[in-house]
Amino acid sequence: MSQVETRSAGDLSVSRPAKRRARGSDKARAEARLGWYLAGPAFVILVAVTGYPILQALYESLFSYRLTAPGDREFVGLKNYGVILTDSLWWKALGNTAMITVVTVAVELVIGFALAMVMHKVLGWLRPIVRTAILVPYAVITVVSAYAWQYAFGLTTGFMNVVLGLDDFDVFANKWSALAVICLSEIWKTTPFISLLLLAGLAQVPSDMTEAAKVDGATAWERLWKVTLPNMKASIMVALLFRALDAFRIFDNVYIMTKGAAGTETVSSLAYNQTISRLEIGLGSAVSVLLFVCVLAICFIAIKVFKVDLARARGEG
Amino acid sequence: MSAKEKTGWYVGALLIVLYAIVPVVYIVSMSLKSEAALSEKTFFPTNATWANYQGIFAGDGADLFLPALRNSIITCLVATFIAVVLAMFAAYAIARLDFPGKRVVLTSALAVAVFPVITMVTPLFNLWRQIGLYDTIPGLIIPYLALTLPISIWTMSAFFRGIPWDMEQAAQVDGATSWQAFRKVIVPLAAPGVFTTAIIAFFIAWNDFVFGISLTSTSDAQPVPAALSSFTGSSYFVQPTGAISAAAVIVTIPVVVLALVFQRRIVAGLTNGAVKG
């Protein structure tokens, strides 16, 4: 059991209920009522702003419905899903999204861990500077970061083609190079988040354990794999899952850099293009629902296969 | 730690600083290039000019940029305010009270946080058109709550759990009324957490792009990120690179300044909410 979990188990909020319940049911009922009065509004809004759209999307995905011809709206059952699932565009978008997710999360875990190690080890005047600098990519909005990377690699504006000796090669006209730059900008922007989570995890690794391993003659590498990493499993899992879900929804970078051209379509950009550009509400809704199903699947896999108890990893009491 | 190891970590630290700021420095440098110099393909401008900034504040771009800046500021501030107030009540209840369904509130906040934003866009786009919320500021504030509320609830309940609530009773024993005890003891302890949460929620709203481009179409409600992508150049064949860069710098400055000033709190807020909960 990790440090994270044991800490929350000893938390006041966990030990309190038992004490409270003993005080009599009137008081307990009044407390329950007050609890819902306070938490209710936030809860109702949360459910309304997401519950309504998902139900509406489910409903509309069953219709052939184009905004430019609303009169032709017709119930078609699951036909939209059939159209999408047999279209190679969907599978390409899904493949791209999965690839972006795997590549960015893997690279971010490695870089993020390296950054966290440096932030953990550096002392003195440099420490606050590093911890401040790492927040810059977090604060810069995704659209701005996408433009910065697009201009850096752009055919007419960019210095990267000169640096890399690519001459007149248009990075954004080729699927793989465009996807690579999309991944780069995503990695730049979101690695700080991972490294901060990992830094918090590192801080919870008991230092006497690493010291003991050192005394016993373990190499730095062995200490890393056998002591440090196992002890920060909870924060690695949380970072991994949250970034994976986030990466799977990637949209801003793709929209700015290629608008899905050159075969760089992702699931989110496909949903956007169907709905907002082509006004195909029925098909767009079906893509949205499929995206939602994918996200649920990732959560399910994370919870079942990797045994992440989200609420507990997040210290819910 | 040996001197050699120490140097290694210091080099690493410098690399991190470079990693973090190079793309930002580059967009600043692009914003200072003249239209003719944009195709220089260099990192730094040879002849820096303020022309792009003039363009977005007073020239051609002003009609698009200034309303967008106003929309962004209003929308993000209002959404942050509503989210933080509602989340504050919820977090207080979660940290302080015992009520059935506590876990349901936290779990649904988590579920909403991982919800794909684009899935909300299709139905909202359609509904907003029917009820007249399309291309309005309230029409943007409501979906922004889906972005800001979950993280506010998580971050603030993490902060509130760390508050020693018994101190309030101790103050009452010492003769303070319960309101005095709450105001003088709890409020000062809770304020930093509320403030940090507000900054993080504001960042998230400021970063939004999906809702911005899908649910707005004119300068009535379009926020800056969406406006950036609809900039046009001085003629059809000229890319608005300079104007976009200048506008990008302007939207970046406030959030980067906030991040730098409240660095310690933001780090604590992000990691508390995510790791310690």
TrEMBL record, chain A:
> Which compartments does it reside in?
Cell membrane
Carries keyword Transmembrane?
A: yes
Q: State the source organism's domain of life.
A: Bacteria
Q: What single Pfam family name could you report for this chain, choosing any that match?
A: BPD_transp_1
The family database entries (InterPro entries) matched by this protein are listed as:
MetI-like, MetI-like_sf
Q: Name one GO biological process term.
A: transmembrane transport
Protein family membership: Belongs to the binding-protein-dependent transport system permease family.
Q: What is this protein called?
A: Carbohydrate ABC transporter membrane protein 1 (CUT1 family)
